[in-house]
Q: What sequence folds into this?
């Protein structure tokens, strides 16, 4: 961590925070790969003694927690935070980061499926040592995605940027944060979490590390289409009020359109052409009705967010925490 009065940093204690939900097929492989990487970094003098892999069990319904407890009992390099229920990916990440910041100088969040390149950690640490408080992992491209996922992802990021969000394109919660940045993040109390958009607004010195996405080691993705849609909606409504302003602008345009149609109808009536046109009536009715329902839906999303925020419910509840101090080897 940065020492007072010095521009240089000491070698950090690094924690890898790994959210897990029904990952029993890949968790032992993940532990082997992540643990091996931490040991190599330690041997190379890039991270300090006490660095760990911290798994966060997000209410898994399979044998994930049993495997994690076994792994942690056999090797003090691993620790386990188990949430009382399934609170969602963003809350699981936050739970791990807030727990790890008590022990670490820097925390890296990474998925359990090993698709994010673990070798990018070296460059993360280089940026940290150079003075960055936040380092974002950004995938080089989306060639591994199908046409539908690639198209919807492109549309999503374009929409987020249009609405004023500072979310980084192709960044998916693979990032390093210093203890200073984590302490600042702890001051944010909102229930509706969208870390990808929230963290860039903090303003700390940051950098980007690009990496290639690998094939999943085992199992299948737990991020279903409905979960991705929920995350997208949370991202839009949590980080921007521009949709409400667009509704106001759209309402004004509909008002102008309705006014023009009213004037034209009065002109037709004055000329004696007072037989109502079926097509015109249908178009106007459907347009106004559709805009009204859409507007109510968007406003309802914001009202729902306000309702949840006013409850001040905890964003997560930790059920069990397994952490053992690692024995220092004599040199």
A:
């Amino acid at each position: 961590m940065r020492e007072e009065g010095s521009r240089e940093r000491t070698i950090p204690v690094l924690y890898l925070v790994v959210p897990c939900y029904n990952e029993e097929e890949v968790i032992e492989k993940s532990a082997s790969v992540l643990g091996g990487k931490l040991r190599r970094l330690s041997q190379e003098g890039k991270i300090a003694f006490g660095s760990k892999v911290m798994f966060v069990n997000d209410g898994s319904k399979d044998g994930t927690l049993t495997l994690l407890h076994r792994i942690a009992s056999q090797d003090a390099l691993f620790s386990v935070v188990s949430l009382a229920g399934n609170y969602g990916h963003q809350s699981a990440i936050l739970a791990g980061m807030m727990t790890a910041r008590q022990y670490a100088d820097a925390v890296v969040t990474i998925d359990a499926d090993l698709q994010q390149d673990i070798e990018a950690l070296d460059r993360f640490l280089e940026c940290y040592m150079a003075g960055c408080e936040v380092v974002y992992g950004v995938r080089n491209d989306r060639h591994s995605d199908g046409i539908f996922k690639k198209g919807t992802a492109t549309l999503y990021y374009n929409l987020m940027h249009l609405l004023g969000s500072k979310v980084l394109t192709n960044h998916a919660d693979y990032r390093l944060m210093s203890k200073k940045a984590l302490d600042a993040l702890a001051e944010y109390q909102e229930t509706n979490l969208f870390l990808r958009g929230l963290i860039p607004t903090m303003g700390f010195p940051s950098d980007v590390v690009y990496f290639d996405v690998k094939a999943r080691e085992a199992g299948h993705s737990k991020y279903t289409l409905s979960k991705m849609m929920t995350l997208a909606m949370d991202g839009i409504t949590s980080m921007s009020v521009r949709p409400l302003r667009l509704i106001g602008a759209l309402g004004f345009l509909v008002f102008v359109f309705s006014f023009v149609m009213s004037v034209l109808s009065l002109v037709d009536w004055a000329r004696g052409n007072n037989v109502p046109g079926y097509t015109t009536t249908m178009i106007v009715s459907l347009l106004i009705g559709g805009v009204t329902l859409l507007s109510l839906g968007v406003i309802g999303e914001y009202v729902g967010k306000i309702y949840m925020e006013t409850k001040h419910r905890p964003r997560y509840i930790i059920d069990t925490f397994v952490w053992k101090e690692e024995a220092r080897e004599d040199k």
Q: What stands out?
A: The beta strands are 14-20, 52-57, 78-83, 106-109, 134-139, 171-178, 206-211, 318-322. The longest strand covers residues 171-178. Residues 278-311 form the longest helix (34 residues).
